[in-house]
Amino acid sequence: MKQPLEKWLYDGIDAITKSVCLRAFMMALLTLILMIPIQMIDGVIRQRQATRSEAQNDVTSSWGGQQHLRGPWISIPYTHRWLETFQRGGQTETLSREEKRWATFLPESLHTDGDVNNEIRKRGIYQVPLYTGTFRVSGSFNKPDLGQWGVSPEDIHWDEATLSLALSDAKGIVQQTSIRWQDETLPLIPGLASHPSEGSGIHAKLGNPLQEPTYTFSMVLHLRGSQALTFSPMGKDTQLELRSNWPDPSFQGGWLPVHYEGTEEGFQASWTIPYLSRNLAQQWPQESAMLEAIHSISYGMTFLPPIDPYRMGLRSVKYALLFISLSYLVFWLMEVLHPTRIHPVQYLLIGAGICLFYLLELSLAEHVGFFIAYVAASMCITLMVGLYTWSVLKSLPQASTISGVLCGLYGYLYVVLKSQDHALLIGSIGLVVALGSTMYLTRGMHRRAPCFPTQPTT
């Protein structure tokens, strides 16, 4: 004779097996329980994503990071003088103060022509997109005028005037270079002479009063970087032309190319940015204000793989609740429409197999790419669940139906993942179709199976 606890468990499981409603509640409960391993898999994906970032940072720390080119601009130091009035002992005193400031002047025209050669380096199993670029920078400046701020000619330190070009990561410079200034060739010096704390870069000392109406410049910069390449529109008339062997760039910043041609071998793109659209003045009496302003505007591109397996893995995990629910719905309909019964433990094992899909997808995607990993993982889980269903139900048609539905669900999920802009629309249509199909198939369920068993279990 069964003990009371054993009899209670036996009767409870038997009631769940025979009751349509209790089986539905049981599957809903199992679905919520399976969200625990899903959240653990989500954490694994994020951890692997962080490990990939560490590997990329390890490579770029010695090669060169994301590059943002800002400049060139002219910096001219001058002595700013003012009177300061204060009270002392009931009397008003006035002191003369002075400080050194840097006036900044941006170019009238700036043209950059660049050729970027992209390559993929590996650190372990992780890929790091790198590039080496040759940039031909040319343009012109008008004569700097400090008189507009009331600066006396004797307070201008022409001997300390510099031409500066800021870079995000100066160690990416691979060749020594110089700048052609009018008819002179000036050597370039590391660092920003006026505000070295604002970032890395290079500069050249102009060294003489700038009295000509126009000054032209040109230079060739060989630069290495990774993942991203951006520029600031420093010229009153800014033009940029780039060519690269990267087939799928992602353009970023405030301006898109006015001309773009892309093929499997690479792309060509050009930008033209007029003065009125950049919201940036041509000169400042203090360079700190200029640096703050140009940091906020940029344009360029990122060189990242079009399909990130970790981003796609995180997106697929977000649909795990929907996927498991639809899978259980198929099994529930099969039990309602056919005289079959599946044990709760078997439901749990089937759900665990579906959860393993996301972990298998991630582990394969790190080696063979997302598409192949997705197909292989979905085929593996579909075959495993189909064979298990066949062994449990002893019915090849029902096992084939389950396998076919799982294949359809995996295909549906892949379409949702790829169509990021239309994911809500596709998901809504899928839910409507699933609900409508369920309503149609269960329209006569009240005549075939009661919600709760009519006879008490013994």
CATH architecture level-2 label of the largest domain: Sandwich
Structural class comes to: alpha+beta
How many distinct domains? Answer: 2
Poorly predicted runs of 5 or more residues = none
Average pLDDT level: 81
Major sheet size, sense and barrel closure:
9 strands, mixed
Percentage of residues in strands: 25-35%
The geometry reads as elongated
Distance between the termini: 12 Å
SSE order in H/E notation? HHEEEEEEEEEEEEEEEHEHEHHHHHHH
What is the CATH class designation of the largest domain?
Mainly Beta
DSSP summary: helix tally: 11
Q: In short, what is this structure?
A:
The protein has 458 residues and is of the alpha+beta class. The chain has helices spanning 4-18, 20-63, 275-278, 287-295, 309-318, 320-337, 344-368, 370-393, 396-418, 423-441, 445-448; strands spanning 67-88, 91-105, 109-123, 126-142, 162-167, 178-181, 184-187, 189-190, 200-205, 214-226, 228-231, 237-244, 250-253, 259-263, 266-274, 283-284, 299-302.
